[in-house]
What we know:
Strand content: 25-35%
Helix content: 10-25%
Largest sheet: 10 strands, antiparallel
Number of helices: 11
Distance between the termini: 57 Å
Amino acid sequence: MSFCLHRTLRNLLLLAAPLAAASASAQTAAFQNCYARWSATELTVGNTHFERRWQIRNGHLFATSFQDRDAKKEWLAAPSRLPSPRIAGPQADTTVAIHAETGRTNPVEAASLQLRIDIGSDQHLRMKIFPDATGIEEDFTAPADASSQNDAPQTIATGKEAEANKAKKDNESALDEFSLQPQHLRLTEVTLRDVTDTHNQLVSTREWMFMNNEEDILARGNVVYVEDVLSGAGLIFLKQAPLPDARAQQSLFDLRMMASDRTVRLTGAGYPFAVLAYSGGRSGRIRALHNYQRQLRTYEPQRDAAFLSNTWGDRNRDARINADFMAKEIEAGAKLGVDAVQIDDGWQYGKSMNSAVKSGGVWSGFWANSSHFWDVDPQRFPQGLKPLVQQAATHHMKFGLWYAPDSSDDFANWQRDANRILELWRNEGVLYFKFDSIVMSTPTAEQHVQQMFDRILAESKGAITIDLDVTAGRRPGYFGMIEGGTTFVENRYTDFHRYYPHMTLRNLWQLSEFVDPIRLRMEFLNNTRNTQRYADDPLAPANYRPDALFASVMFSSPLGWFETSSLPPAYIASAAPVVATWKHERERLFRGTIEPIGNAPDGVSWTGFASTDADSKGGYLLLFREANSNAQWTTPLPTGLPANAKITVLAGTGSATIRDGATAVTIAKPLGYVWLRFDSK
């Protein structure tokens, strides 16, 4: 493992206000409910939800306390034996200097209290304390040639071998390290998958309950959590990076659990980690994890959770793309209730390899192919895009485009790509961009993509939203570059017999336990196409009502993956009323915490989602009866929904009552749904 210096470039704060720097006397810094106190021997940081402490000794930090103030729980068993952060090898005595400031790294991030901790002259730790988070974000940079011993497998032996192995492990690099107090812990490793063109099981987990002589557990993944089984309190370890196999900077593990003394060791390997406390079991964990993601990209109702349409799902590719066709798309989109009309591949002068009208297109090296590659095609759009953007605006709709940043030479043209995106925003009024074709193979490539994102967000002041396609390539994934916008999760087509509504619902349901669903772009299709490919399949798309198809993705950022102007009138008549209701309820829905409930969708389950208000005075349930024979189902009332609530049926073909702390639901026919609003009386 090596640490990258390039991340320090991102730590320049917007609207920064320096607060204090280290000195011989005690220092303090504060921002809203966040605080930091430090002296020559101790550092304390926290907010109203948590507090962490370190002893400062010989220029290094040793963790001494992690208190969940909401749950009134101390997590650490004893002061840490080893310092963290640290590079690999013996730790020489050094100096430490601490500086505090407030601000935000980019325009979409929540403001925070930030500490820059300089360890010697060439190691730097950045801490962020957000007012609404239950833990800190840590990002460590050190010389790129700092050696590491985290790259070879470690095994537990006996006798002298064990002592030698212990010494070897002690020399590993670490971002954070501490020993946990609770005896009865369950450790869970979450494995997420992207490259969804060839993967459909996107979430899987492994868990351990360990003995005190257990071999070390090496967990690898963006999300790992440990929970006290007796109290339901836990800690989440979130690595803000591409998925493990897609990272340019690899490490054997992301978290080492040394079961003998329940010591947790995190390896940053050039990426930030957040360590978050929670209580209340699964619901509390989801709330803490989603809420933290909202600190990295705050919810803006006029920008986020937009319903986009994109013509590519009907597989005509770019064959029909021109001004007249897109004018029809806008009018049809207005009838359906679309928020933003997006043109996929085909609006530009250059031709990609996916073009239906011209062979010999390219999938990288766009700028080398033509300096005009990303010009608006003058034959398809002789007046440019602005007339279409203005037409959309008359219906209170926005506009989006497909775009493929040039991956060649480690994104050497990232500045040209950023320039073009910003020109399309300034000159044409385009606000939503679907980024495709990204392949980040090296640390330099990752750095350039990050710089491109940073510049686009900074100069547009957060107005531009990027839909980051994760269907192929090596891309930032679900937890890399969260600030950019939404994750475009999957391409599914009826043409290839690959679209099943229950499968898309399953992927949303499983991902939403870990990824804030507002960050997931999930699709529904025109189910009147290619019906012959599904024959008598009871789970065929044509067996679902159009409003149920929209409902299956409306607790995410929905994508109409079709030519809207080709939808039958009956389709729009079915879906449009639900879309209108959803837009009316949308802000409250997404200000709540969304969690999956029931069983994982598999085509025959009862399943759904809950959204609970922050003040626990109400929220929503969205429940689906898949192809099963049970017209009634009872589900425990999610935490945060009042037992004496008034229930309003907003959409669907069902009913519900509350009794004995549970919701009893009736949906008469299979493949139906009901959407309920709960309001305290």
